[in-house]
Structure formats: C-alpha cells, structure tokens
Specification:
3-stranded antiparallel β-sheet, 2 domains, mainly alpha, 3 strands, about 10% strand
C-alpha cells in the first residue's frame, strides 16, 4: 500500500510542485514526483523514483461518500463521472452510494436512474477506450492496395 496520502500531493494548495514518491513517502525525500494533468484532463502522479512511474488518481468508496456529503460534486453527472473513473466498487458499496446521492444530495434523481446512468457511462467509457486502442493499432496495420 502507498505510504503517501493524496492530501500530501494536493493538500491545501493544489499546485503541481514536486512531492514525495507515492510508494516510498517522505522518508525517501521530497521532489521525487509531480502531479500533472493528462490529455483527458485527469490528474496523475509522475514519479521520478525507481526508474519512473505513473499513478492514476482515482476515487474509492470513502472519497466518493465524502464528496457527496460535502457537496464536492456540483451535479449528479459529476458524481457518476467520478464513479466511472474510480476503482471498481462492490455491489453493496455501489448501492449505498446510489441511495446516498439519490435520497440525500440529489433528490430529483431516483435510485434506478442513478444506477442506469452509471451503467450507461461505463459502457460509453468502455467504447471510448476500445476506440482509442483501435486507433492506436490501425496505424500499425499495413494497407495493401490492389493495382487497378
């Protein structure tokens, strides 16, 4: 498990200044990593330690719950997007978060609509990833034309 918390990276000032390596922590020294924005606009940690590494920043159940309760998500769509980007949740955790968001924070959204929105968003994300992979490999496939 990582010995550095996300708060140590983003903390009070969300700046992209050097920080500790996510696995080694502060004991390994500062200036070993930096938080950057990917082409998709999502933050990630680039570590210079141990031959370089990239770490995606994702939500877990606790951070999703905290975000819902503190109003970090401006809309139900933002909440669903965070669930899609987050780690795989088990069914009870997903149900809990759907009920929490639908009943307490976004009362105009029904539980079933929340579940359906997450399913659709996951399917769209999967299709986007598939398309990116296809485009990546299309460049490598030789095209042979028959002479006319």
């Amino acid at each position: 498990m990582f010995s550095t918390t996300l708060a140590e990276y983003l903390g009070v000032k969300p700046r992209f200044s050097p920080g500790p390596d996510p696995q080694e922590g502060r004991s390994y020294g500062g200036g070993k990593s930096i938080v950057l924005l990917g082409a998709d606009g999502r933050p990630f940690i680039f570590s210079f330690a141990h031959g370089e590494g990239v770490y995606r920043l994702v939500h877990d159940r606790a951070s999703l719950e905290r975000g819902v309760r503190t109003g970090d998500f401006r809309s139900h769509a933002d909440f669903i997007a965070a669930m899609v980007d987050g780690i795989a949740l088990n069914k009870p955790d997903e149900d809990f978060l759907h009920h929490l968001s639908a009943n307490e924070v976004f009362p105009d959204v029904l539980y079933r609509a929340s579940v359906s929105a997450l399913k659709q968003a996951r399917e769209e994300a999967k299709a986007e990833r598939w398309e990116e992979r296809r485009e990546q490999f299309d460049d490598r496939i030789p095209v042979i034309y028959e002479p006319s």
